[in-house]
Amino acid sequence: MTTAKFTPDHYAALIRRYFAACNAADYDELVDCFTPDAVHYFPAGLPEVPWRSADTIARKWQWCVATLGSQWTIDKLIVSHDSPEAVIEWTHWKTKSGTALRGAEWYDFDPETGKIKEIRAYYAAPADKEVRINELVDFDYKGRGYHLESPTKPA
Asked: What domain of life is recorded for the organism (predicted)?
């Protein structure tokens, strides 16, 4: 039997460190939370998504802090006990406009380094009526084994 290299406490602490780095717009700390080839997926409606690479992710969050006055809180955090994954609920506070966005994210960690290799963000927001299926931009749903059709056909 193999033993996991990193514990759930490690992953929870990494997510908290990542959010602290986002709030501080700390480029070096942000990059250090990710594998170099990390990907951050988002729902449709944002320009230039997904964000590919630790460098890109760090620079985009720096832009949000500088431009929007962004600050984030972790509202709930659950880490898997038997796989390198976690789920959180968060609030993105846009202090310059006095608005906020709530959402959730799924984290996949690299089991060798213990760093974040992928984030899939989901927003608590209205659906985009212009698309047939509201989903993350450029995420390989088919390749990851997600359902591509409804289990029942309309009547």
From this structure: Bacteria
Q: Is the peptide bond before 50 cis (omega within 30 degrees of 0)?
A: yes
Which tens digit of pLDDT belongs to each residue from 22-47? 999 999 999 999 999 999 999 988 88
Task: Give the Cα-Cα-Cα angle 53, 57, 62 (nearest 5 degrees).
Answer: 145
CATH of the domain at 52: 3.10.450.50
Identify which of 154, 137, 132 has the alpha carbon closest to the alpha carbon of residue 39.
137
Residue with tokens 């709930």: 76
Alpha carbon distances (Å) from 126 to 20, 53, 64, 103 = 28, 28, 22, 12
Quote the pTM value. Answer: 0.86
- Is the residue at 22 inside a domain? yes
CB 21 within 8 A of CB 30: yes
Range of the domain at 55: 8-123
The tally of domains found in the chain comes to 1
Which residue intervals of the chain are DSSP H helices?
Answer: 8-24, 27-32, 54-68
